[in-house]
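Entry 14. Ran structure prediction on the chain below.
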Amino acid sequence: MNYNTNHEIITLDYFSHIELFNKKIRHKISDDFIHIEELQKLESQIYHFVNWYTLSEFSTIILEESINLGELFYIEFQNVLTSFLKMFLEISKIITLYPNNTFIVSESVHEIISTYTKNVNVIKTKNKNRSIYSSVEVPIKIGPKIFTLKLNSEHVSMIQTIFDKGVKNFLLNKKIRTDDKAILLVDFTTLKNENFLLASSKFHLNIIKYDRTVPSIWNKRTFNIIKNSNCIMENESNLLNKEIMTRIKLNQQIFETKLNSILSYENVLANHFSINKVSFWNALKPLFIRLYKRGFFEAAKEIELAKQLFRKYCFSKVLIFNEAEMIEQIILHFAKKQQIPVFQLQHGLYYDSPQMISETSFQRIIPKNSDFFISYGDSFKNYLINNGIKSNKVKSMGSIFFDKIFDSKISEYSYSGYVLLAADPYAFNRPLDLTVNQQNQYHDTIAKICQVISNQKKHLIIKTHPQKHAMEDVIAKQINPKIQVFHSGDIQPLIKSSSLVIVTDMSTVILEAQAMKKPVISIPIRDHFGKPEVFNFCPQIKSDELESWIQLFYKNPDMKNNLIEKGNEFLKLYLANPGSASSEILSFLENAKYNLNI
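Output, structure tokens:
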């Protein structure tokens, strides 16, 4: 296509920029129209916008059995709102510079730009939803090779129902022991929590496993784990009956009416969703409706399923890994209603830097509603105490994920001696992270690592964070076709068989590598996250210094030993009960009595 001098092309996202760049089509990027300071300010404003559900005008409409329906999706709303507002801010600046021009845009961009100008021509396109909430990637192993199958959320739900019904009859012989306490586990993935689930059979506990994200059983190994554990599976197929299905359909109609009532408060929403007295509500409205219409529809089912679950069992305790997602919020509500203590377990290695306190609070890593928190060790316990959590509400008991590492139960990969890169392009979906410059920096770092390791004649394996990857396989193949890239599957066998582990920024992989006595380093990409404690024990090597560092590493065995020793120091500081966390926590659950009023 030929463009005359009266035309200007401006890309609004990274992938469009890359496509035009590769085709050598001249264009501008929307990032150039705004300043970093504006993006930093936008970040703090997003926290305010996401809390629309706390507005007094909606205080009665939005509640269902005291559950705030808007709050159930605040994390997902933050994710889409961040991308939206960055684009909204950029378009407002572009319109200011080109007030009399005609704009040719996609349908999604039209929703924003029509707020400012009517000089718009719309090109119909297939809208690709890149939200991490819209799909799930499933590892498929065929012989020695692992492939990734990407499924949308609806297909995952259908497959989960089929699996649940298929194995139901094989496990019906498990009964509640009336003399033992009933403990509810919410979304405790079977494979990842294998040690904990199997260890539960040695305790006087009824373990009720409630999975709504991933099926409890999907292969022979997970079937055997459930069969040999002290677990009773609960899921949609067990809980649903005609009466509940009728209530779900009725609630879906009621919730749709609630959403329509909320949307009728145009002035309230327009006032809330505004920057510098300029409202962006009209542009946001279509996206808002799509998200919450689907969300309220899902919530109608999940609330009824949770109610049935709490009618069916008399739980003594509830265990969750996070407070922020819809399922956990609903379970938390019904547990509190029945005065059942809720324990939140630490799920990974978190950013404990001052710069990230707002984000960890928002994500409820610093718990908001849980009664108690079980931390990996005293280090994170002290972080929570320093950020307002009472000391008697936190207990250092270790990580149930790490038990199989210390028990030497991690299987080997098919070969060993390679360098493993654990990459995460979207650690946090913040405005600064969405800029072309930041994403270029990530891709340049991946390319640099690929080139350096290939130059050293070492084999490289790249493992991306589940559900989050960005062209790593394309970059790797351009540099060295022998580089392997995995987007799904368990990373621990890859760590165990590696000679060196590299991570981008910070990741729980650092702690996993240290636990397996592997040397591990970090390549910093983002400096606005601050410096968490782990980087006192794991060196950060800049990408332009990596080649010389790698050369020294393979020449000097002391470097490897020093890294492993530093890892041992951090493990002692950060991780309690290595190898026995599962049994310690189960014993605690079996014997502990708590007063919720302390």
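The chain has a mean pLDDT of 90. Will compare against last week's run tomorrow.
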